[in-house]
Amino acid sequence: MKFRSWISSSSSVNTTADHPVPPPKGVFTDDASNFSDLPSSTTSPSLFSQETYSLSSLQSNLSLLTLPSVPSLQNLSPGTLNLAISARCLNSLNPRNAHVTFLAMHNNLLYAASSNEINVFELTNFTLIDTFNNKDPSSGFAKSVTFLDGKIFTAHQDCKIRVWKLTPMKQHNLIATLPTLEDRLRRFVFPSSYTNVRRHKKKMWIEHHDAVSGLAVNENLMCSVSWDRCLKIWGGSKLRCIESIKAHDDAINAVVVGKDGTIFTGSADKRIRVWGKPYAEKKGKIGLIATLEKHKSAVNALALSSDESVLFSGACDRSILVWEREDSANYMVVTGALRGHTKAILCLINVSDLLFSGSADRTVRIWTRGNQGQFCCLTVLDGHRTPVRSLVAAPAVAAESGGANGGVKLFSGSFDGEIKVWQIVVSSSSGSPLIS
């Protein structure tokens, strides 16, 4: 089935040396309280100073736009699909600091970025086993965590990426900071290693010059994005910065990478951009494949379906857009929107063909896809007192759900520092599990 293209693509990709980067714009507002986790349009005299945001009301913000020109895709109900869903809160975790900014899971451990520190919990009994980066408050908020080649990578507000190693005693030791001192020394004498970041100020192109907002990995490569509008690629055994691209016209808030190496970036400039090698102008370099434009406000979150044929994007316009591959339309087109959240979409994940969305409206919605591309909102999880900033989930062990099918174990983190643990089980009307 063919769909009309909403893509505006470009064949030119600028480098970080092209233009100085002004400060990014804010991405959402909420009337609950003040948060300092998101980019602000107000210039701050120091990166380490607390950025405060006007959280007046969404009533006068683009967050109220719900993209009426995009058709709705949630025309199904659980009854239509002969599905039953069970969702219960198993536990609530409270790290020592407020502002849960990112959640990640690896090797039966939960990593919860909270303020400047990362708390690590055992998934079996939710015991706190380690807290690291807590001795360096100058790093600012920890904004992303990922894993590659036995190492843990954390992204920070102070423009740096830190590399950690888990010891046999389950402690996390700092082993490097990217870019490494060796990488800097290799380049510092060459004028071509520097780029203008603002008037009368230069920095090396291998380093970010604003908060590192996201990390994503693929095989032996890592991607980082920043409020400085740049996408950087890190590779090799020493994880050197091998490419830097001025990817957007405003702060980049989200990045995901597919198994084939295709990179998707979402920005406060309302655009999603698709990057890869096949269409690059220079052999071996990352190039721009397509620009996806349909959101009316800042894009905050991206997720890929299990088979990576569908991209989901969430923004301040309260809509989750569904993009599908369409070769005749130059890569991807928007096929419709998922609506229901009353405020900005802040996080998206896809696990076992279930899509989870967290919002500034303090709820989590669970979606599944039925026939002919239609979707169903299975349930809405509430209970958080502040916006849901991060989600992570994985198939659960059957024994953890009382001997029944395992379903999915979901963790949702909010700005007040609370992490809720949910057990999600989706079954057919006959009672047989769909996820195990």
UniProtKB/TrEMBL annotation:
Region Disordered, as annotated, extends over: 1-38
Q: Where are the WD repeats?
A: 245-275, 292-333, 338-367
Q: Where do the coiled-coil regions begin and end?
A: none
This protein's record includes keyword Secreted? no
An example Pfam family from this entry, by short name, is WD40
Report the domain of life of the source organism: Eukaryota
**InterPro entries, A to Z:** JINGUBANG-like (IPR045182), WD40/YVTN_repeat-like_dom_sf (IPR015943), WD40_PAC1 (IPR020472), WD40_repeat_dom_sf (IPR036322), WD40_rpt (IPR001680)
Q: What keywords are annotated for this sequence in UniProt?
A: Repeat, WD repeat
Protein name as it appears in the record: F-box and wd40 domain protein
The scientific name of the source species is: Solanum verrucosum
